[in-house]
Amino acid sequence: MQKILSLLTTALLLSGLAFYSQNEESHSFKTWQKKYNKFYSSSEEAYRQIIFNQNVELINKHNSNPNKSYSMAINQFVDLTREEFQAIYLGKSTIVKTENIELSARKNFEAVDWSSKLFPIKDQFNCGSYWIFSAVGAVEAFLRVKKVLKWSLSEQQLVDCADSWGCYGGDADFALDYIVNTGIVYELDYPYKGREGFCKVRREGEVKISGRERIGSNEDDIKQKVQEYPVSASVDCQGWAYYSKGIFDEGCTDHRSNHDVVIVGFDKDGNWKIRNSWGVGWGEQGYMWLKSGNTCGIMNRVDRAI
């Protein structure tokens, strides 16, 4: 009899812990939904909570490892599977040649960080316009540092008007060439919608640049150019979704490209500071640090406005 009671007590205790755990996860999911304004149909909500729980477990496991050089955080992407995240926010993964990469032999660098000179971080929303944000970000940076630019420029113009892929991915060098040839208007006159629409530009944009300069895949050369002003670069951003802070150094390859960003600086150890287009709720207020060298293929395609 005593043994039976003991078994029943253990079973109740375990079921109570499971119930508590389920309630705790549900509360966490509901709190997250409220914070990020996420709403689903009744049939989808249970599915999204399962994905949420799995991703939170992954984040907690990563952060509990003291050997990791960066941390993860629960953000706006934790209700998505890896495949969904890639389909919405990234471009088609392409193979990039890496045989011409020249890494720096230097151990100490004169650090530079242009982020305080730039406009606030932007958000591409559920639109694969990262390539446009990289190009426009590089143009804004050039004009902010070397010229005079008081107002932010229009990404939506390129989403609607550039003869390319809009919200379905593209190439930042193509976007830079469009700005060279056509010019670009101010965001105030053509605000971002995060979806494709009809082109509203009937004349050349008010803001133009002289050209686009391709920078070779030499780390010292790239860093020298970044010391002048920020540049556009292509990357493989596999594993970036939950990045929070620290030096990212794993989970991506150096021979693929599926995303474009802006390099805004580097620290004394040569680690790259990256400006992304996923809003201030991601990373370090919209920025991240990549390990020096060709981490995530950051050196494979680098262009700047001139």
From TrEMBL:
InterPro entries, per the entry: Papain-like_cys_pep_sf, Peptidase_C1A, Peptidase_C1A_C, Peptidase_C1A_papain-like, Prot_inhib_I29
Residues in a coiled coil are none
User: Would you say which domain of life the source belongs to?
Assistant: Eukaryota
Pfam families attached to this UniProt entry: Inhibitor_I29 (PF08246), Peptidase_C1 (PF00112)
Which reaction is this enzyme known to catalyze? Answer: Specificity close to that of papain. As compared to cathepsin B, cathepsin L exhibits higher activity toward protein substrates, but has little activity on Z-Arg-Arg-NHMec, and no peptidyl-dipeptidase activity
Q: Name one GO biological process term.
A: proteolysis involved in protein catabolic process
Which UniProt keywords are present, listed alphabetically? Disulfide bond, Hydrolase, Protease, Secreted, Signal, Thiol protease, Zymogen
Broad class of where this protein is predominantly found: secreted
Q: Where in the cell is it found?
A: Secreted
Q: What class of enzyme is it?
A: hydrolase
Q: Which Enzyme Commission number(s) are listed? A: 3.4.22.15
The text of the family note is: Belongs to the peptidase C1 family.
Q: What is this protein called?
A: cathepsin L
Record the organism.
Paramecium tetraurelia
Its lineage reads: Eukaryota, Sar, Alveolata, Ciliophora, Intramacronucleata
